[in-house]
Write a structure and sequence with these properties.
By secondary structure, the protein is α/β, with parallel strands linked by helices. It has one domain: P-loop containing nucleotide triphosphate hydrolases (Rossmann fold). The chain contains eight helices and seven strands. The protein has a seven-stranded mixed sheet with strand order 6-5-4-1-3-2-7, with helices on both faces. The two termini are about 15 Å apart.
């Protein structure tokens, strides 16, 4: 599936663009994985994603560029009702669990079922076991994972957002299964100047705060208020032309 965006982001370019949605329980490390991929750094302070966040990341290989639109979703139960609408037209869905948290592994069935019920036919599914740096605290053994992957005919990659181990393998696997074989075989470059990473992150944080306010749902809101917030979410989607 080749899901080229329309509108301001991609209309003037022939760049192949793919929508990647990252799912999983709260605190499994979804945001940390994306931060490691995007900036090459790890942030130890935990800040849960509110609703959903997204950004684009260009990859360069020789004379070709591809663009990944990466959607970082909240793992909290109160935001689950918002996620199905963002699975539409996803080229790849990455479901993350924590190898030191058995409950997050047991939740894979739920995430996979919900994804297949709402995503488009032909979507690629990749299971990612995060926190491989904590092997001594592992509660999900490799045999369990192998059995689950084979049973459901899935793709599995293990990584550590903390030390960066396996992050390149994860996105190489994404690229390969999207048909971007050259990127999967190469030491591709990303479009981030690490010398200015703090400046980039500050600007991104300002943008994220604006977006997150529109996704934030108070636990005690009535149905009318919830509907208003969901309408705001749909408006933001149209404005950014991201699905």
């Amino acid at each position: 599936m080749n899901n080229v965006l329309t509108g301001e982001i991609g209309a003037s370019s022939s760049i192949d663009t793919y929508k990647i949605v990252v799912l999983g329980d709260i605190s499994v490390g979804k945001t940390s994985i994306l931060s490691r991929f995007r900036y090459g750094i790890y942030e130890p302070e935990y800040m849960p994603t509110l609703g959903i966040d997204f950004f684009s990341q260009n990859l360069f290989y020789e004379d070709k560029t591809i663009r990944l639109i990466l959607w970082d979703t909240a793992g909290e139960e109160r935001f689950r009702s918002l996620i199905p609408s963002y699975l539409k037209n996803a080229d790849c869905i990455i479901i993350v669990f924590d190898i030191t948290n058995k409950d997050s592994f047991n939740s894979l069935n739920k995430w996979l079922t919900d994804s297949k019920n709402n995503a488009s036919e032909g979507t690629i599914y990749i299971i990612c076991g995060n926190k491989s740096d904590l092997k001594e605290k592992r509660t999900v053994n490799e045999n369990e994972i192998d059995e689950y992957i084979k049973k459901n005919e899935l793709i599995y990659v293990e990584c550590s957002a903390k030390n960066g181990e396996g992050i390149k393998d994860l996105f190489n696997t994404v690229a390969k299964n999207l048909g971007e074989v050259n990127f999967a075989k190469s030491d591709y470059a990303v479009n981030v100047d690490l010398n200015n990473v703090n400046e980039v992150k500050t600007e991104q944080s300002k943008s994220n705060n604006i977006i997150k306010k529109n996704f934030f749902v108070e636990e005690n809101q009535n149905n009318k208020q919830k509907n208003t917030k969901i309408n705001n979410v749909n408006f933001k989607k149209k404005k950014f032309h991201c699905c």
